[in-house]
Write a structure and sequence with these properties.
Structural class: mainly alpha
CATH class: Mainly Alpha
Order of helices and strands: HEHHHHE
Radius of gyration: 12 Å
Pfam family, one: HHH_3
Largest sheet: 2 strands, parallel
CATH topology: DNA polymerase, domain 1
Number of strands: 2
Strand content: 5-15%
Protein name: Helix-hairpin-helix DNA-binding motif class 1 domain-containing protein
CATH architecture: Orthogonal Bundle
Number of domains: 1
Length: 72
Amino acid sequence: MASASTAAEPAASGTSIDLNTASVEELNALGAGMIGRRIIAFRPYASPEDLVNRRVLKRSDFEVIKTAITVR
């Protein structure tokens, strides 16, 4: 049976969320609070580490989501 909220479970599904294409809802569901709008405002990204290097997120928030994100 398929889950109705697969977008909210990126780490569980084994796929990473692309920072350059993910929706606000997908980004907010990563577990670091309401970060979606801020991430989208600073697009595009060359690497996930850009979130910290460009001061989009605090290092502590980045550590929470880093295994669930990617840049394609």
